[in-house]
Write a structure and sequence with these properties.
alpha+beta, NADH Oxidase, globular, 240 residues, binds flavin mononucleotide, 2 domains, single chain
């Protein structure tokens, strides 16, 4: 059995791009609606169908609801946040902005999920991971992105919290030493998805224009005309 090689229908394509462009990192606007079990399983199954180096599927998902566990994670966040604020001691304007940013929804969201990387799954030899060991962790990130997009399609917001200590997460969640926490995610239904990233709306950084990150054939070539017409089309996209 295989699936048809035809393109998606127009509405199927629109659905995919809608998920991509309207996905947001969510830290506020969570509401009280609970995520039903079947919806959660659909999202986890989408994550589990991500590509992975050598088909190693090196991910695990720790599902967390208990408040005392979350409070411990929140303490780790608070501690790490203080450390990052002190890194901005020489830039008081940015420090002031940072202090006012909401950067996690650990307690307000319905479910927290810690996504981990197990380099030992299926033994030491993983096809394709021999030259670039980080491909194992990249695979976990592919799973996280699948989860994020599937959640968006279900109307569920996801916030990735990385201002945490890996050692704290290991201790709090009983994660063995050979397994590495990659992401701590907060999931829940939300009242709205903003059009633009919070960090853009709040003037922290702006989206780079697409043409600034495209190179033609060689790193040093960013302005090749007539490369499959792409250059001109990208120029017209600027501002997206
Ligand atoms: C690896 C990774 C770690 C992140 N860590 C945090 C975090 O600790 N706190 C936070 O508020 N957002 C975090 N984010 C979200 C980014 O700030 C967000 O993706 C970016 O500003 C673009 O916004 P968007 O996701 O809404 O498009 C993280 C995103 C990624 C991919």
């Amino acid at each position: 059995m295989s699936t048809n090689v035809d393109s998606f229908t127009i509405s199927e394509k629109e659905g995919l791009y809608k998920a991509v462009f309207s996905r947001r990192d969510i830290r506020s606007h969570f509401n009280d609606k609970k995520i039903p079990g079947d919806v959660l399983v659909r999202i986890l199954n989408a994550a589990h169908h991500a590509p992975s180096v050598g088909f190693s599927q090196p991910w695990d998902f720790i599902l967390i609801k208990k408040r005392d566990t979350r409070l411990r994670v929140k303490n780790s966040f608070n501690h790490e946040r203080e450390k990052s604020i002190s890194l901005l001691d020489n830039d008081l304007d940015r420090q002031d902005k940072y202090v006012n940013l909401k950067l996690e929804g650990i307690l307000e969201s319905d479910i927290n999920i810690c996504v981990t990387y197990n380099p030992e799954r299926f033994g030491p030899f993983i096809l394709g991971r021999t030259s670039i060991p980080e491909t194992g962790e990249y695979s976990v990130c592919c799973a996280i992105q699948n989860l994020w997009l599937a959640a968006r399609a279900e109307g569920i917001g996801v916030g990735w919290v990385s201002i945490l200590s890996i050692e704290d997460l290991r201790k709090i969640l009983g994660i063995p030493n050979h397994v590495k926490p990659i992401a701590y995610l907060c999931l829940g239904y939300v009242n709205k998805f903003e059009d633009r990233p919070d960090l853009e709306r709040l003037d922290w950084l702006r989206r780079t224009i697409l043409s600034k990150v495209i190179h033609f054939e060689n790193w040093n070539n960013t302005e090749l005309n007539n490369w499959n017409n792409t250059n001109k089309i990208i120029q017209n996209l600027n501002g997206m």
